[in-house]
Specification:
This protein is an alpha/beta fold. It has helices at residues 42-50, 77-80, 100-111, 115-128, 144-156, 174-191, 202-205, 226-230, 238-246, 255-261, 321-329, 351-357, 374-384, 391-399, 414-426, 444-459, 471-477, 495-500, 508-513, 520-530, and strands at residues 2-10, 19-26, 31-35, 60-67, 70-71, 84-87, 162-166, 194-198, 211-215, 221-224, 281-292, 295-306, 310-314, 336-341, 358-361, 432-436, 463-467, 480-485, 488-494. Helix content is 36%, strand content 22%. The chain has a six-stranded mixed β-sheet with strand order 6-7-8-3-9-10, sandwiched between helices. Strands 15-16-17-13-18-19 form a six-stranded mixed β-sheet, sandwiched between helices. The longest helix is centred in the middle third of the chain and has 18 residues, at 174-191.
């Protein structure tokens, strides 16, 4: 159906091509997962399919893109839209109307679809995606999972043959992510739609994929069935990492398959839970109530953040995690309750003093970037935090190595931008660090580096609060977990206790071996000790 032939993409200031001689054929009715390290060119590859590269990205594109044997390399995105639909990393950024029903109809209006056909397609799409009850809802009031499904629906009403998605589950809680992926699988199986998606959280997507297209980092592409690619890939989910360590063949791609292999591992001695150490309380919040208009976003919440502890803040989309974090930082007005950091209320401090007490990395990390080059951003961070020259750059290289200091921050990939903002905020070494979805756009290697930095900060006497949907990251770094629902704390305790009790928030190793197992390295250590 769609074929890429000998695709080369080079950006003007890059020493080597991002894509170098790429060939890829997409067949009708398959789901292809695009994988690879942060910044290797996944979004670029998707942009070649949609026509956004190089028209809106710059650079040079050579090679050919064929649709049913006919070249569309020079066809602009608007003339591909009826065949190739695209949903970006931030679906809400693409909304152009006010309500769900209007958004579903908008694309058809631009294509000149007849009104009676538009009405029928809107109804079909509402039923297909299970969002009929959202028909009249204001788009701004939707949860992340609902926004994602509406964005997909707005593309589907134009009846494309290929659906291209860039990290469709990165901002979703585990349940919402499963719903979106189940919807995509249904479209592939029942309607013959071809789906291409780029995603870092492979543990979510691999069980649904027919093939994996792995970008190798040197401009190349390896395409094959998931088990074949993952056998040698440097980017693998925990379930495959466990399978490799245990020598399982074929490698399991789902929890169900892994549980069948894992019977002999269940006799291993379980990891011990070390008692919590009582570090100094650095932040105390009591009775927090925060409202958005008439809606109560945070309701009577108490929080203590201790030195030496990493606390994970979890909960479904819309549960109040971001609101709580901004309130703790002092930037969000609260209706009642108190917050104290080192005896001071951050809401009453000037911005520069507040940052020295409480550092915050927001979900939209790029909002903190304002200079012309990566090098200038790092130098400004060092000056602003009175850190030694090169401090910010060293942190950046741990998270996303090799970024050219001459690059404009807005030209970086989503993951690279996040890594830069993390480095800027971490260079101030605030006593309390708040991170809102910090792993969005980061591959497994970058997340391990982030976990190491967060752990080092905690061990150095800092308190860290991480709001995240990434259960694997929580398993790797968090001491404690707080779960919100409808703005209230519904569960709190040690990580092993909280995640093991929740099917939604349990990491893959826990699902395979049961509590108290959390991580692959724990299993590997137990296997080595048993030899």
């Amino acid at each position: 159906m769609i074929e890429l032939r000998n695709i080369h993409v080079t950006y003007d200031d890059a020493a080597a091509p991002v894509l170098d001689g790429i060939d890829l054929t997409l067949d009708e009715g398959e789901l292809v997962l695009v994988s690879g390290r942060t910044g290797v060119g996944k979004s670029t590859l998707l942009g070649v399919l949609t026509g956004l590269v190089p028209r809106f990205s710059g650079g040079t594109l050579t090679g050919d893109v064929l649709l049913d044997g006919t070249s569309i390399i020079d066809t602009p995105p608007r003339e591909r839209a009826h065949v190739i639909g695209y949903v970006g990393q931030d679906p809400a950024a693409g909304f152009v109307t006010d309500t769900v029903e209007e958004e579903l109809a908008y694309g058809m209006e631009q294509l000149g679809v007849a009104p009676d056909t538009m009405r029928r397609r809107v109804e079909e799409t509402l039923d297909l995606l299970g969002i009929a009850d959202l028909r009249a809802r204001d788009l701004r009031t939707l949860s992340g999972g609902e926004q994602q499904r509406v964005a997909i629906g707005a593309v589907l009403t134009t009846h494309p043959r290929l659906l291209v998605l860039d990290e469709p589950t990165s901002a979703l809680d585990p349940t919402a992510a499963e719903d979106v992926l189940a919807t995509l699988t249904r479209l592939v199986h029942d309607l013959g739609l071809t789906v291409v998606l780029a995603e870092h959280r492979l543990e979510r997507v691999v069980p649904f994929a027919d093939r994996i297209a792995l970008l190798t980092g040197d401009g190349g592409l390896v395409v094959d069935e998931p088990a074949t690619v993952l056998a040698t890939s440097p980017v693998v989910p925990p379930i495959v990492e466990l399978g490799r360590a245990a020598g399982w063949s074929p490698l399991p791609l789902s929890v169900r398959e892994a549980r069948r292999h894992a019977r002999h591992l269940r006799v291993l001695p379980a990891p011990e839970e070390h008692p919590a150490t009582g570090g100094e309380i650095l932040l105390t919040a009591q009775g927090l109530v925060v409202t958005h208009g008439r809606h109560v976003a945070v309701r009577d919440v108490d929080v203590e953040l201790r030195a030496g502890h990493v606390t994970a803040l979890m909960g479904r989309n819309g549960s109040g995690k971001s609101t709580l974090i901004w309130t703790l930082q002092g930037a969000h007005e609260r209706r009642s309750g108190s917050v104290a950091v080192d005896g001071a209320d951050p809401a009453r401090l000037a911005a520069d003093r507040r940052r020295a007490h409480v550092g915050l990395v927001p979900q939209t990390a790029a909002d903190l970037l304002y200079l012309e080059t990566v090098g200038e951003e790092c130098a400004a961070a060092d000056r602003g935090s009175d850190a030694g020259p090169g401090t910010c750059r060293a942190l950046l290289d741990r998270l996303a190595p090799g970024i050219d200091p001459r690059h404009h921050p807005r030209d970086l990939s989503e993951g690279q931008r996040l890594a830069l903002v993390l480095a800027i905020v971490l260079s101030t070494s605030p006593r309390v660090l708040l991170l809102d979805e910090p792993t969005r756009g980061l591959d497994y290697a970058a997340k391990r580096q982030l976990a190491a930095i967060v752990r080092d900060l905690a061990d150095d006497g800092h308190a860290v609060l991480v709001a995240t949907h990434d259960v694997e990251f929580v398993a790797s770094v968090a001491d404690d977990v707080v779960v919100l629902a409808e703005g209230e704390v519904v569960s709190a305790g040690r990580t092993r206790e909280v995640v093991a009790a929740s099917p939604s928030y349990a990491p893959q190793v826990t699902k395979i071996l049961g509590a108290p197992w959390l991580r692959v390295d724990e299993v590997v250590a137990a296997m080595e000790a048993a030899r």
